[in-house]
Amino acid sequence: MNSPEEPTQSPQEQASLPASAAPGSGVRGSADGSDYGAEQIRALKGIEGIRTRPAMYIGDTGPRGLHHLVYEVVDNSIDEASNGFARQIVVRINADGSVSVADDGRGIPVGPMPDMENRSALEVVLTEIHAGAKFDRQGGYKTGTGGLHGVGITAVNALSEWLEAEIRREGAVWTMEFARGTVAEPLKKLGVSDRTGTKITFQPDPRIFPDTKFHYDTLQKRLQELAFLNKGVRIQLFDERTGAKDDFCYEDGLIEFVKHLNRTTTPLFPQVIHVQGTQDQTEVEVALQYSIDYDENVRTFANNIHNVEGGTHLSGFRTALTRCLNNYGKKQ
């Protein structure tokens, strides 16, 4: 018996329906005459998906998204440095407007991956999303990393007109070239090298970005910030277009960061309070100094990523600081 909520159609009624609206066809007719069915569904994979919806991966295709490409590559170098595998990072804005990021880390692996049709690990990392060594601690990254999802460097490749990778490892120099996310030149072994490291050079794609001009001051601010956060790591920035350059290296890390933030005001005391510790494999570091200003200047980071809206680490710090001051006041 058919319930009133589920009316059925007679064979004559079903036969009179257009084929596009036949039950089970997966297609529905619409008021304006257009059809919506299985043939309208698209399944975008990897590079194509990134190029179709770039803002999902880099925020937007304006200046912020453009510079985010550089940050993604630099963050990989920073991950090497924060885990003790690299000590120097060089960022260069080339005369043609492209950008090069080089480090003295271990170098992206270039060997074949049997479960990926024996493609080079370098190719897989640069062309497949969710490919990388940071999903667990087995890749040698014992401390937190900015890259966690295996997406960033693939997005850079996908949104670049061209990208060149130069890897130094296993006693040799390896190169590979890409065009809009796909392999343009296969992996090549050029010669010998007694050094290790990764160098990525890329040109943003004008089909994606209305303006592909990098701004020195924007990169300078972020790179200096990273140098403060990673004490002892040297980060150099060069602009071949203008000759501008900067060299950042801070042995006292966050202490120098706080002094830098307070450089235009008067501190209430000369020393910067610095606390550092580890619990359950989580490292925490805090530096603070009070000044005569009424407005606070608080910066919070997790794995070198700026947490603009704070987070539980900031909430916990505020709670602990308030408790300590209250307890001290009650004892006096």
UniProtKB/TrEMBL annotation:
Organism: Schlesneria paludicola
Gene3D superfamilies found in the cross-reference section: 3.30.230.10, Histidine kinase-like ATPase, C-terminal domain
Database matches in InterPro entries: HATPase_C_sf, HATPase_dom, Ribosomal_Su5_D2-typ_SF, Ribsml_uS5_D2-typ_fold_subgr, Topo_IIA, Topo_IIA_B, Topo_IIA_bsu_dom2
Keyword Disulfide bond: no
Feature: compositional bias, Polar residues: 1-14
GO biological process assignments: DNA topological change
Reaction(s) this enzyme catalyzes, per UniProt: ATP-dependent breakage, passage and rejoining of double-stranded DNA
Pfam families documented for this protein: DNA_gyraseB (PF00204), HATPase_c (PF02518)
Histidine kinase/HSP90-like ATPase domain ranges (all copies): 61-208
Ranges of Low complexity composition bias in the record: 15-25
SUPFAM superfamilies: ATPase domain of HSP90 chaperone/DNA topoisomerase II/histidine kinase, Ribosomal protein S5 domain 2-like
UniProt-recorded Gene Ontology molecular function terms: ATP binding; DNA binding; DNA topoisomerase type II (double strand cut, ATP-hydrolyzing) activity
Keywords for this protein: ATP-binding, DNA-binding, Isomerase, Nucleotide-binding, Topoisomerase
Cofactor(s) it depends on: Mg(2+)
EC number(s) recorded for this UniProt protein: 5.6.2.2
The protein, known as: DNA topoisomerase (ATP-hydrolyzing)
First-level EC class: isomerase
Region of interest (Disordered), residue spans: 1-35
Family to which the UniProt record says this protein belongs: Belongs to the type II topoisomerase GyrB family.
Superkingdom of the source species: Bacteria
